[in-house]
Design brief:
The complex is a heterodimer of chains A (about 240) and B (about 425). With about 240 residues, chain A is α/β, with parallel strands linked by helices. Chain A is about 35% helix and about 25% strand. Chain A is globular and about 50 Å long. Chain B has two domains: about 180 residues, no CATH class; about 220 residues, no CATH class. Chain B is built from 14 helices and twelve strands. Chain B has a six-stranded mixed barrel. In chain B, strand 7 and strand 8 form a beta hairpin. The chains are: A alpha/beta (about 240), B alpha+beta (about 425). The interface between A and B is medium-sized, with 28 and 23 residues.
């Protein structure tokens, strides 16, 4: 599903160059639930952004669903994001003066679906996250956990192949965080590949595989999480192959 | 269409978030465009071609045929009666008419208070050449003197209370005349056949009198006349026809380049003959000036109008710059939403489509405001300069042009901000 070979990303200013990602090798199979972990500033969010094509990379290859992302036009990249990737941001990133319906409908607008199809998908997504009765509410009328569920509904409404979640429970209390994690697990069980950045070891353990990033490089995942026995194959090489 | 309505809805939401900066943008843009509209209206009208299908065929012949010696002089702006006779002595033009204007007083009965009128004294071809429409009656059969007048519709209604007054009699400056025709509504703006002394900016005359009758009845031009040597301008019937009293405009219709060349040659031959006969002491300086160039020939192009046009254009540029800056601030304030849309699948083209909805909305609101400001500006100018009143109307062509300018300006104001908002690091913008 995702194949990354020798991918590097450098942030440049006038004075300094920061090597955010160094020769990353990562393969993720369809249906996997991968947790990207690591200390702050290690590059895990940058990697997630590169995977979501929100950020360009400087060298290496990135194949998404067999298609090289490098050199794609803005139009092709936008279509790729719209059709194949769903985003869940830490800060929810909902538009405050839009109803839940309008927020969830937003990516579908750029997909070319007709009004009936958009309505069907939005209502289905709202049902999946348990907010069907609140379609006309505005984000400010909801709790943090509910807002994140709206963001998840928006991410899954287009039925993407991959869900990229950047600390989806970072702004939530433990109860709400658990509910969101259960929702993500349920989505994963339905066949959607999930890559999730998290600081929380407990949540990371709930993922099928953990990939740790330190100083922009993938480290030995098993060392970081000795309980992740299933990831033994990832220890043999910096390339985390599922 | 549904997606476009969605873009409009998004634009309206964005306006609702910060209505004051948006209102300020509209106000600044409307102000610049309103002032520009007001000036553009006058500029458009003053420079309009009143006979676009024919103006390239109508010419005013000028020559230095004066009884004094003048080297490298420009020919006089008006011709003498004898000059016109000489310039008319050919069949090359399809039509030809000499003319001038005068003032008079009109009434039906001696008891009635006299009605001041503007008179055009001319020849029959005038009406054909400048496509003057007739409502009742017809033009005089020839250019000879006759006690017959042609009235404008407005004058007929004012004097008789009706328009079908052919054959009725009236008194013009103590002489009796018969009405031979009444014109239909006719406006020629600018009246380029009468461009001496900026007369082309005034309304058409109230009454038309045969030129020969005008000379017989001693009507002197009210716009431009000059007499040389011993010519007595008070004796138009005699001296006016034989001596150097210059007061006539003379127009010829030359339909083809061959006719134009032939008439130039005719003028050259005429002046050569006159010089040979000792009647052309000055340097030969013949001109055949087309109707479109006549205002420039008389150096009456209105430098103040041009200067004002430049000032309003500069003012519009300043307003555009400021509105663009405000628009940029608005887009920067909406950067987060634009980036979110891009992250969720909107391409830069989608963002440009969204910007086009912004442009149309802005153009719609700005058009109304700018037209109101423009109309107020025109009303003020009409009040301050009543002579410009005739040149302050809008027609569909002008309105559509003005709307197109508004659309263009709205696009310019939105283009850079929308492009700037479409680029940049999405990830960074989503965090801000």
């Amino acid at each position: 599903m995702i194949k990354i070979n020798n991918l590097s990303k450098i942030f440049r200013t006038e004075l300094i160059e920061t090597h955010a990602l160094k020769n990353i090798q990562l393969h993720v199979s369809e249906g996997e639930f991968v947790a990207l972990t690591g200390p702050s500033g290690s590059g895990k969010s940058t990697l997630l952004n590169v995977l979501g094509t929100l950020e360009h990379f400087d060298s290496g290859d990135y194949l998404l669903d067999g298609q090289s992302v490098k050199g794609l036009s803005d139009k092709a990249l936008s279509a790729l994001r719209n059709e194949k990737i769903g985003f869940i941001f830490q800060g929810f990133n909902l538009i405050k003066d839009y109803s839940l319906f309008d927020n969830i409908e937003l990516p579908l607008r750029y997909r070319g679906f007709n009004a009936a199809e958009r309505k069907r998908r939005v209502e289905h997504a709202l049902e999946q996250v348990g907010l069907a009765a609140r379609r006309d509410y505005h984000p400010s009328q909801l709790s943090g956990g509910q807002q994140q569920r709206v963001a998840i509904a928006r991410a899954i409404a287009g039925q993407p192949r991959i869900l990229l979640a950047d600390e989806p429970t970072g702004n939530l209390d433990s109860l709400m965080a658990r509910q969101v994690m259960e929702l993500l697990e349920q989505i994963n069980q339905n066949g959607c590949t999930i890559l999730m950045v998290t600081h929380d070891p407990e949540q990371a353990r709930r993922a099928g595989r953990q990939v740790q990033i330190i100083d922009g490089q993938l480290s030995d995942a098993a060392m970081y999480d000795p309980l992740a026995h299933n990831n033994a194959h990832a220890q043999s090489s910096p390339v985390a192959v599922a | 269409m549904e997606q476009f309505l969605y873009y409009l809805k998004v634009s309206l939401k964005s306006i609702r978030r910060a209505p004051l900066p948006y209102a300020l943008t509209i106000l600044i843009l409307s102000l610049g465009l309103g002032v520009f509209f007001a000036n553009a209206t006058f500029y458009y009208r003053l420079n309009a071609d009143p006979l676009p299908h024919k103006s390239d065929k109508l010419f005013f012949p000028f020559m230095n045929l004066v009884p004094y010696e003048c080297q490298n002089c420009e020919p006089p702006n008006v011709l003498s009666y004898s000059n016109v006779q000489k310039l008319s002595a050919t069949d090359i033009p399809s039509a030809k008419a000499a003319m001038y204007s005068a003032d008079g007083y009109l009434r039906l009965t001696p008891q009635q208070p006299p009605l001041p009128v503007k008179i055009r004294l001319t020849q029959p071809d005038f009406f054909r050449m400048f496509e003057v429409p007739f409502l009742h009656g017809s033009v005089w059969p020839d250019a000879s003197a006759r006690a017959e007048v042609i009235l404008s519709r407005h004058t007929a209604e004012k004097l008789f209370g009706e328009t079908d007054v052919v054959g009725r009699r009236l008194t013009l400056d103590d002489f009796e005349y018969t009405v031979s025709a009444v014109l239909a509504d006719w406006t020629m703006l600018p009246r380029l056949f009468d461009a001496n002394n900026n007369n082309h900016l005034s309304e058409v005359e109230d009454i038309y009198l045969p030129l020969e009758t005008g000379y017989d009845r001693n009507y002197l031009s009210n716009s431009q006349s000059s007499s040389f040597q011993d010519a007595d301008y008070r004796k138009l019937a005699t001296d006016g026809r034989t001596k150097a009293i210059h007061q006539l405009q003379f127009w010829v219709q030359l339909d083809t380049p061959e006719q134009q060349q032939a008439y130039r040659q005719f003028m050259a031959n005429l002046t050569a003959d006159e010089k040979k006969a000792g009647r052309h002491p000055s340097t030969i300086n013949n001109r055949l000036v087309g109707m479109r160039d006549i205002v420039a020939h008389f150096n009456q192009q209105g430098g103040d109008i041009k200067a004002f046009a430049l000032v309003t254009l500069l003012f519009l540029l300043v307003c555009l710059f400021n509105a663009s800056h405000l628009s940029l601030n608005r887009y920067i304030a909406n950067q987060y939403e634009i980036s979110l849309r891009r992250a969720l699948g909107a391409s830069r083209w989608h963002i440009q489509q969204q910007a086009m909805a912004d442009v149309l909305l802005m153009a719609g609101i700005t058009s109304v405001a700018a037209l109101l400001i423009g109309y107020s500006g025109i009303s003020l100018m009409n009040y301050l300069l009543p002579a410009n009143r005739l040149f302050s109307s809008w027609d569909w062509a002008l309105l559509l042009s003005l709307l197109a300018v508004t659309l263009g300006c709205s696009y310019l104001v939105t283009l850079y901000p929308s492009l700037r908002a479409s680029f940049g690091a999405l990830n960074q913008q989503l965090k801000e």
